[in-house]
Amino acid sequence: MPTAGNHAKAAPPVRVNDYDSFAEAYSALSETSLLNAYYERPAMLSLAGDVAGRRILDAGCGSGPLFAALRDRGALVTGLDSSSGMVELARRRLGADADLHVADPRDPLPFADGAFDDVLASLVPHYVRDWGRTLSEMRRVLRPGGRLIASVQHPFVDYATQDPRPDYHATTDFTQDWTDLVGQPARMTFWRRPLHAMTDAFTAAGFHLAVISEPQPDPAARELYPDAFHDLSTTLCFLFFVLKAPPATGSVEWRAPAPRRTRSEVQPRRALRTKPGSWETWRLAHRTVKQPMWNDSPPAKCSSFPPPARAVMSQTMNGVPPMVS
User: Fold this and answer.
1) Predicted confidence (pLDDT) per residue in 95-136, tens digit
2) Residue 306: CB atoms within 10 Å
3) Can you tell me the distance from the alpha carbon of 146 to that of 119, in angstroms, rounded to the nearest whole number?
4) pLDDT tens digit string along 258-288?
5) How far lies 94's CA from each of 22, 90, 257, in Å?
6) How confident is the model over 170-192, as a mean pLDDT?
7) Beta partners for 212?
8) How many other C-beta atoms lie within 10 A of the C-beta of residue 269?
9) 257/263 Cα distance (integer angstroms)
10) Range list of β-strands (E), 10-129
């Protein structure tokens, strides 16, 4: 029999990773939060280094805080995010002339080959199940020798903190509830994978691993978040990578020349070929550790030395320690 409850409309399902629905709240949170403002962004900027004049793609730019910081440092920045709500907030922050695009980093990127010197993927990879296609696209839009700088949830975090522990070696998804963070129902799904799966994906896409970093938070946060600062400073959180695209075919990367070897470094082999009483034996006995390579030609005969030196030479060559008055 129909009842009033039968006709009640079911609540619409909560969409997963729906940044459009809480863009304002999340943007405000990330401006001052310990994890974003005093840990992840400073670490990304530090790894990027001097970016003046560099063409940078901020893949997953959100509302634009990292974009703004890179632009302030002289970079030529392009931003991309799958959330139109986040891109709209970024445009308000950065101005109408900012180069911003609504596109999913998991899809083919709307840029030409070699368009950028750097790609920054700030807390993006753990949203992606299949890294292969995404990394290949990022590699494509980088110039030869360009860099991919990425941050991701540390692969040891869940294994170290969750009970029961997940299978570390498996690539699996997991869900978090961000309701308390953004003030409304927010279901977030991420992908975790072991460290070797990350590095395998990087090399399969053609990248060389240059840096792997587990940074400390900005000391400026110590007074603002005293308890949380200590916790973050002593535990795992995010993992950071700097990856380099290979140089152009035929180019040679500069390498520092090998230091010149001194005779003291090559001497052990030559010492095996010397004979007691030889000029070489005398020379080895009087060399110094830091003495550089010097003339290998011995004097024609001992008599060419002045009398005092001749006496010392004769004693040394006969195996007798010289007496010096």
Assistant:
1) 999 999 999 988 999 999 999 999 999 999 999 999 999 999
2) 7
3) 8
4) 555 555 554 554 444 545 555 555 565 555 4
5) 20, 6, 45
6) 94
7) 241
8) 7
9) 18
10) 55-59, 76-81, 99-102, 116-121
